[in-house]
Amino acid sequence: MVSAVTPLVWIITVVGLLAIIALDLTVIARRSRTVSITDATRWVLFYVALAGLFAAALFVFNPGPSGSEFVAGYITEYSLSIDNLFVFMIIMTKFAVPPLAQDKVLYIGIVLSLLLRAVFIFAGAAAIAAASWVFYILGAFLIYTAVRLAMEGENDEDDFKENAALRMLRRILPLSKDFDGARLATRVDGKRMLTPLVIVIAAIGMANVVFALDSIPAIFGLTTDAYVIFTANALALMGLRQLYFLIGGLLERIIYLNVGLAVILGFIGVKLLIEALHGSHVDDIGAFHLPEIGTVTSLLFIVATLTVTTVVSLIKTGVIDKRRVDDEGTGA
């Protein structure tokens, strides 16, 4: 397995991440009100700053490509995760989760997802280390995903449906009909039962795992360093919960997000295929020379795509809102 750091650094990093997770849990346990915009903003800035400090540490203490690879991977994972927030909102609405319980649900679901993603990351790193042809599979899969994502159009409520696993949990678990605040278990007629929060947490966790099938191959297109991939995923996911409470309204305005993400996934898929061809000693296809796409080039492309996507979306939704106001004003 490829890794730019020693086992000791791995241990220190995991312990640090566990400490942050414990801090998050302490904050949630003590919170007696819903998450405010101020709280969410403060925590989003904290996690973004934490990722920035981590990137700076990689640049200083681990000279080489790992610093720029982490930045590119973190931005990619964070941007792909933003699209996931819409599905989280649908899940919360569909299950009518009490506002005070939403923070807890997201926390547990994301922590479970982080554990499952770690398994995917190490399995993927081992597969790539064993056989370079895996790049062909990952590249083709990302291009397929990009096409599918582009054809889906805007996010809507059909993006989430209860799967067979959730329906099975409903059948086998002793579930109460109603929520009991933020509690996972309650008593109904003297019997101890689980609340519907358990199903919601399972839905969030499963959704995160499905999203990992897109995002983890994407970051493998930027780096094969398991340490960089793991930390980029961890820091992106850990800041996702607060972002949910911050940009709920704004997310509906970024109507071309799927298009932007499709472009990014397609770009990384092509990059993976080119790297696979280089690994097979194929540098030219006819008269066309296959370029070397570096991490800095990838990072600039990703940032530019996200910027254009956001700006065009906001302009488009602004025009739509203006037309709606004009129509209402004229009685049309």
Characterise the protein shown here.
There is one protein chain. This protein is mostly helical and 332 residues long. It has one domain. Helices cover 74% and strands 4% of the residues. A two-stranded antiparallel sheet has the order 1-2. The protein has a two-stranded antiparallel sheet with strand order 3-4. Strand 1 and strand 2 (191-194) form a beta hairpin. Helix 2 runs antiparallel to helix 8 (226-238), helix 3 (66-94) runs parallel beside helix 8 and helix 4 packs antiparallel against helix 8. The longest helix is centred in the C-terminal third of the chain and has 36 residues, at 295-330. The protein is globular and about 75 Å long.
Characterize this entry briefly.
The chain has 332 residues and is mainly alpha-helical.
Number of strands: 4
Largest sheet: 2 strands, antiparallel
- Residue stretches low in confidence (pLDDT < 50, at least 5 long) are none
Q: What level of helicity do the residues show?
A: over 70%
